[in-house]
Design goal:
Beta-Lactamase, Alpha-Beta Plaits, five-stranded antiparallel sheet, 18 helices
Length: 454
């Protein structure tokens, strides 16, 4: 009994200690569980300590006091989404350089706990596609006095991460920005776009547009800026014909050609009828809105044996039709004509001069020969026609159609009125075929064949 009694006290003490330890362990686990349960999910802007304030001029300003309050809150009350945005704001506002050591230590703790490095790298990856956009856009108009660049506003001290045509302002990669973040936040608060604004810097003048890039989780993270050197365009380019030509050459330079339609259905049909640019019909409103009679060179052309080609090989016939339409659209426009109608496998075009119509016809036949897929018959007549609504009527149109019907495959025939206009053109050779009686034409028409270089 004495031995048992002597052992009982230690055993009781050990058991009590174990119970206390178990209680403490479970209390600790419960505390962790409770801490996990209270992770906050509010958006950063919903907190009273969102670190931006509005001054008396309705401009957005950074508040260091609110920023430090936010740091302390998120160190004790987890909210990964809001804390990551706080890290972005801290880097944007150079808190590492402007705060005291105690506040910097707290920010560094927050930065570590919420993996600030991943916030920075994730945003760099997010901006990669914007870099590509900047490079492609900038390379579309080289040497035109137009600069385009991308700012990574999470790293404002070295914010320029992509730039094209940087010679316009002299900026280079990894140059920084100063107050762009606060300016863009101010404009967002005031519901303003930073669009088409003017900058005067000494003797330099620019027209600029800045496009902010916001992310739902991090807020403002970048901006695309477009800067145009207005004095270069107004004082250098506009007043020197050779520089104006060079400017347009650079602006309109292309590297290759595709067969894609970017027009709406209505605009596409207007283009086939001869509309040359987006203001063309507006400029011609007073001309085409009513019927007008004028002297014009009318050209009819069609594919040889298209109907029989369709019967033999429909796929080949459709390829030929597509190719024919393509070369007609390109070459009629090139020679200053208007493609008025597509008539199945045929085309009706008008020109202001007979020589342009003939030169276009020669190029059309050469292009058709080059395809090896089809041949054309072409007829041209110069006479008075009625133009209305993008179409042409009258006896001049009828005669051109009958001349085209009389042409042999790969041949260009013209009337005597066309010949009398081009007879002194050294680069155009003709053969007199004599008079011909054409269907539905009262008088015989003297026809001439246009010869092509072999």
């Amino acid at each position: 009994m004495t031995i048992l009694a002597s052992l009982a006290a230690p055993l009781i003490g050990l058991g009590a200690a174990l119970i206390v330890a178990m209680i403490g362990f479970f209390a600790y686990r419960a505390g962790l569980a409770g801490r996990t349960r209270v992770i906050e999910a509010k958006r950063f802007e919903e907190y009273d300590f969102y670190p931006f304030v509005i001054d008396e001029n309705r401009r957005v300003e950074f508040s260091p006091e609110r920023f430090n309050e936010a740091v302390q809150h998120f160190l004790h009350h987890p909210n990964p989404r809001a804390a990551r945005e706080l890290i972005v704001i801290g880097e944007q506002n150079f808190v590492r350089d402007r705060f005291g050591s105690q506040d910097i230590d707290s920010y560094k703790q927050l930065y570590t706990e919420y993996d600030g490095d991943s916030v920075i790298s994730d945003n760099e990856a997010f901006l990669e596609n914007y870099k590509r956009i900047v490079h492609l856009m900038g390379r579309s108009f080289p040497h035109t006095g137009i600069e385009i660049l991308l700012h990574n506003l999470v790293n404002p001290s070295r914010s320029v991460v992509a730039i094209e045509n940087g010679e316009v302002t002299g900026r280079k990669l990894e140059m920084g920005t100063t107050n762009l973040v606060l300016d863009l936040k101010t404009r967002r608060y005031q519901h303003q776009d930073k669009l088409n604004y003017e900058l005067n810097l000494g003797s330099r003048q620019f027209k600029c547009t800045t496009i902010p890039i916001f992310r739902p989780d991090l807020g403002l993270v970048g901006a695309i800026c477009i800067n145009i050197d207005t004095r270069f365009l107004r004082e250098e380019v506009r007043h020197h014909p050779e520089k104006l030509d060079a400017f347009f050459d650079n602006l309109l330079k292309t590297d290759f050609q595709l067969e894609e339609n970017i027009l709406s259905p209505d605009e596409y049909q207007s283009a086939l009828r001869g509309k040359r640019h987006f203001l063309d019909e507006a400029i011609r409103t007073g001309i085409d809105a009513v019927e007008t009679s004028q002297l014009a060179a009318i050209m009819f052309s069609d594919l040889v044996d298209y109907t029989s080609m369709m019967a033999r090989d429909e796929a080949r016939a459709l390829r030929a039709l597509h190719a024919s339409a393509q070369i007609h659209r390109e070459l009629v426009a090139k020679h200053g004509g208007r493609l008025l109608k597509e008539l199945g496998d045929g085309f009706l075009s008008s020109f202001d001069s007979a020589s342009r119509a003939v030169e276009c016809a020669i190029d059309l036949q050469n292009a058709a020969d080059g395809t090896g897929e089809f041949r054309l018959r072409i007829g041209i007549h110069l006479g008075e026609v009625t133009i209305s609504g993008g179409d042409a009527f009258g006896s001049g149109v009828n005669i051109a159609a009958r001349i085209q019907g009389a042409a042999a495959p790969a041949q260009v025939l013209v009337s005597d009125t066309v010949f009398n206009t081009i007879r002194n053109k050294a680069n155009i050779r003709v053969v007199d075929l004599g008079s011909a009686n054409l269907k539905h034409v009262d008088e015989p028409i003297r026809l001439y064949e246009i010869l092509r270089e072999q």
